[in-house]
Design goal:
By secondary structure, this protein is α/β, with parallel strands linked by helices. Helices cover 48% and strands 10% of the residues. A 6-stranded mixed beta sheet has the order 1-3-2-4-6-5, sandwiched between helices. A hairpin with a 2-residue loop joins β5 and β6. α3 packs antiparallel against α4 and α3 packs parallel to α8. The mean pLDDT is 88.
Length: 260
C-alpha cells in the first residue's frame, strides 16, 4: 500500500467503523477469492490421487414412462368402475391439474354403438359428462333422428378425459399417454360399432387426420367397424355440412340393421 498520512488513515478507519467494522482479525488483508481457488485446486488434486476416498455420486432417479404406466393401470382394470378409478389416479397428464372434473363417459354401457369424441369443453368440464354443451344438444337431436339415444342405445366417451386449457387441440404426447385407457375402455364396453367424431379421435384411433376427407367411409379401429363423422361443434360452425352428416348417420343406421 502507498504511504498514507495520519489524517487519511484516520478518515479511512472512521469510514470502516461507520460501515460496521468493529474488529481487526489480521494484520494484513486476505484475498478470499484466491483462497477459494486454492481450495478447489487442493480438492481436484485429492481426486486425482489413487486410493483417496471420494463421495459417491447421487443415484439417478429412474424416469417414469407415462405410457407404460397408463398401459399397466388400464390392463389391471376389470370393469368400467375400475377403469375410472385408474384414470382418476393417473398423475402424469398435466391437463388434470387445470381441469375441474374427470370426464369419463355417459350413456348405456351395454350399447351397440360407442361414440368417441375429442376432449371435454367448458360445459363438459363443469358437469363431468361428455357432450353436454351446445354440441351435445345437437348430437342428441341427431341421435334421435335415427332412433338412437344416449340413455339406451349409445355409449359416449372422449379421447381425453380432462379439458385442455382454452379448448386447445390435444398434444400428441397427451394423446399417447391416454390411449391405453381409451383402448381398454372400448374393450370393456365391447360395442358392435364405433363412431369416431373429429380430427383428434381420427388421429388417436386411425392414425390419420383430415376428418372432412375421412368422414362417411367405414374403417376398422380397435378390432371393429368404425365410422368417422364430423364433430357436432364443427357442424355448429359450418351449418351447410349438416347434410353430409345426416348421410353418415343414415349409413350408421343401415349398418346396425345389417348386423342384427
Amino acid at each position: 500500500m502507498d504511504h498514507m498520512d495520519w489524517y487519511a488513515a484516520k478518515a479511512l478507519l472512521e469510514w470502516q467503523m461507520e460501515m460496521g467494522v468493529d474488529a481487526a482479525l489480521c494484520d494484513a488483508p486476505v484475498d478470499r477469492f484466491a483462497a477459494e481457488a486454492d481450495l478447489r485446486a487442493q480438492h481436484a488434486e485429492r481426486v486425482r490421487q489413487p486410493g483417496v476416498a471420494t463421495a459417491a455420486p447421487a443415484p439417478k432417479v429412474a424416469e417414469v414412462d407415462p405410457v407404460a404406466e397408463a398401459r399397466a393401470l388400464a390392463a389391471a382394470a376389470q370393469d368400467l368402475d375400475g377403469l375410472r378409478a385408474a384414470m382418476a389416479g393417473f398423475e402424469h397428464c398435466q391437463l388434470k391439474k387445470g381441469a375441474r372434473n374427470l370426464v369419463f363417459a355417459d350413456g348405456a354401457p351395454g350399447a351397440r354403438v360407442m361414440l368417441v369424441g375429442e376432449a371435454p369443453g367448458r360445459d363438459e368440464d363443469l358437469q363431468g359428462k361428455p357432450f353436454v354443451g351446445r354440441a351435445g344438444q345437437l348430437l342428441d337431436r341427431m341421435l334421435a333422428a335415427v332412433s338412437l339415444s344416449r340413455a339406451d342405445t349409445v355409449y359416449i366417451t372422449n379421447v381425453l378425459p380432462w379439458r385442455p386449457p382454452q379448448n386447445r387441440d390435444p398434444k400428441p404426447d397427451e394423446i399417447a399417454m391416454l390411449m391405453p385407457f381409451l383402448q381398454r375402455h372400448i374393450a370393456l364396453v365391447n360395442p358392435d360399432l364405433l363412431v369416431i367424431m373429429g380430427n383428434t379421435s381420427a388421429q388417436a384411433l386411425l392414425g390419420r387426420r383430415g376428418i372432412t376427407r375421412l368422414r362417411g367411409q367405414w374403417q376398422e379401429a380397435a378390432g371393429r367397424p368404425a365410422l368417422p363423422m364430423l364433430h357436432p361443434a364443427y357442424l355448429l360452425r359450418t351449418p351447410h355440412a349438416k347434410r353430409e352428416a345426416w348421410g353418415d348417420w343414415l349409413a350408421l343406421k343401415a349398418r346396425l340393421r345389417a348386423l342384427k
